[in-house]
Design a protein that fits this description.
Residues 1-5 and 106-121 have low confidence and may be disordered. Helix content is 51%, strand content 14%. The chain is built from 19 helices and 15 strands. The protein folds into 4 domains: 12-105; 125-241, Response regulator (Rossmann fold); 250-376, Rossmann fold (3-Layer(aba) Sandwich); 387-535, 2-Layer Sandwich (Alpha-Beta Plaits), CATH 3.30.70. Strands 2-1-3-4-5 form a 5-stranded parallel beta sheet, sandwiched between helices.
Length: 538
């Protein structure tokens, strides 16, 4: 006899799971706050306490994944304590990886933990639309993109939800529950809040200026009219909530003095910055290719190769033209400092330097460099890497795969019948579909995977440490989910599919040959009926 599942027991398990996830969010919030400050005993104690709470809840409610993560985080924090409260690059990297995994644990039933990678948007999006069924459908669509959304059916339900928990964002119909009531409810929700909630308004019909003005005064940051689709909504929510994984800055320190380099490392590590030290400047180019730093700190006077000479060598390589170089030296002759900066440096700091000064300079320079690089190497429509940079990332991944003896797969995706979409629905709809797939890939693939827009409706994905069979399984799941997204349109709603070809690194293949094999597999998928994933056969 098969024992029947007890519905009340199942609800209780779900309730307990939510308690664990809530505690996990507390850990993440403390961690993310730490990224903006220097490490200190008070923050350390708060993070330790929050993680102990997570471990207790996870053990009590039998949440195995959270037990494992909390234990691993606890081990890292113990290592920091054993290191007299000091961070180092290995611990920063390990903690960051664990926190990223923790941010992906709020998955829906049926998702596979190791294959689904969601951004750390930890609160739900509230949907307050007149048509409750439409709100529920939109909530389901948002879930395809990895967001939790809660459809609300009345003004009382909205007020109750706001009392219980503040959302990540609110989508409010102007006439929700009654004419003009949505504006009033939204205004109420923002009252007394130091930091206003991201608020988006919606109206079926185009509205007059007084209504739009009232929406602005209520705190509205976006106003949708007419059709409302999940991809457009999530695009705005991402911008308004700044949803992104924190990635520590990486600094390469080149100094022939081990003692000085160690001191610089400790100062930067204390602020959560990952460092790598090189005492042999002649090895700089190989280290740059492997480490890919956001910034370089360079000593002025070193045997065999001085700082300005090395700066010139680095600047000869187009890939490192925009990487900031900061000279850190005891040299106090202003003319010599200016001469050094004219050879490729961006800043000159004189030893001894106050830790806060060094940290602030590195953070500011690295932040600007990242922003500049993202504009140089990314596609303007989707924010994905452009064709040229995708191939460069493939070459880098191929080098590391060979060195470490790990698998590497390269996938090419193409939206099916895309010309028909443009011809039937217009190019704006075509752009929406392209942006939708780009966003879907970013949220469903790992942070270590590199996603590029290869051109037009074609995409490419570099999957390190992944064999072809695993890549096919992951991308086939994405293919199925993507096909379920509905785009409201006339004369009828639209859904799209894509085909995919995958090649795995074998033998002495170079990047061009690997991409050619993926393209051949994509051709097989296209001519085999489309809406499928094919692996290149040797």
């Amino acid at each position: 006899m098969i024992e029947q599942e007890d519905p009340s027991r199942d609800r209780l398990k779900q309730h307990f799971a939510k308690r664990v996830i809530h505690q996990a969010r507390q850990v993440l919030e403390v961690w993310q706050r730490l990224q903006q400050a220097e490490w200190n005993a008070i923050d350390m104690a708060e993070l330790v306490e929050a993680n102990l709470g997570l471990l207790r809840y996870a053990e009590r409610f039998e949440q195995a994944v959270h037990v494992q993560l909390a234990a691993s985080i606890g081990n890292c924090l113990s290592a920091v304590e054993a290191n007299r409260g000091r961070l180092n690059s290995q611990l920063i990297t390990e903690l960051n990886q664990l926190m990223q995994r923790l941010s992906r644990t709020g998955l829906r039933h049926g998702d596979q933990f190791e294959q689904t990678f969601l951004p750390p948007l930890r609160k739900p999006v509230y949907l307050a639309l007149q048509d409750f069924e439409r709100a529920e459908r939109l909530a389901q669509q948002l879930e395809f993109f990895g967001l939790t959304a809660q459809a609300l059916d009345s003004a009382n339900a909205f007020r109750a939800a706001m009392t219980e928990r503040h959302p990540a964002a609110i989508l409010m119909e102007v006439d929700f529950a009654a004419p003009g009531l949505g504006l009033q409810l939204a205004s109420e929700a923002q009252q007394g809040l130091e930091q206003k909630l991201p608020l988006l308004f919606f109206s079926h019909e185009d509205t007059d200026t007084p209504t739009r003005l009232a929406a602005v005064r209520a705190g509205g940051q976006e106003f949708f009219t007419g059709n409302l689709d999940a991809s457009s909504l999530i695009e705005r929510i991402e911008v308004l909530t700044h949803v992104s994984q924190y990635d520590p800055y990486k600094v390469l320190i080149i100094d022939d003095s081990r003692a000085q380099a160690t001191h610089t490392e400790r100062v930067l590590n204390s602020a959560g910055i990952v460092t790598r030290t090189l005492t042999e400047p002649i090895q700089a180019m190989a280290e740059l290719a492997d480490f890919q730093p956001d910034l370089i700190i360079l000593d002025m006077y070193m045997p065999d190769c001085n700082g300005p000479e090395l700066a010139k060598v680095i600047r000869h390589n187009d890939r490192y033209v925009s990487v900031p170089i900061i000279f850190l030296s005891a040299e106090d002759d202003l003319d010599k400092q200016l001469d050094a900066m004219s050879e490729g440096g961006d800043d000159f700091l004189t030893k001894p330097i106050k830790p806060r000064h060094l940290i602030a300079t590195v953070r500011n320079r690295a932040s600007r460099a990242r922003n500049l690089k993202s504009r140089m190497v990314r596609d303007s429509l989707t924010g994905l890497y452009n064709h040229t940079h995708t191939l460069q990332l493939l070459e880098d991944a191929r080098f590391r795969a060979r060195r470490d003896g790990q698998p590497l797969s390269f996938a090419m995706l193409d939206i099916d019948h895309f010309k028909r979409v443009n011809d039937t629905y217009g190019h704006p709809m075509g752009d929406r579909v392209i942006k939708s797939l780009a966003l879907f890939l970013k949220q469903r693939l790992r942070k270590t995977d590199h996603i590029g827009r290869y051109g037009g409706e074609e995409f490419a994905v570099v999957l390190p440490d992944t064999d072809a069979a695993t890549a096919a399984k992951v991308l086939d799941e994405i293919r199925q989910r993507f096909s379920e997204i509905i785009y409201p349109a006339q004369p009828q709603d639209l859904s799209c599919t894509f085909s995919c070809g995958i090649a795995e690194l074998r033998g002495e293949l170079d990047g061009k040959e690997l991409s050619k094999q993926a393209d051949e597999a994509l051709y097989v998928a296209k001519h085999g009926g489309r809406n499928r994933v094919e692996i290149h056969l040797d």
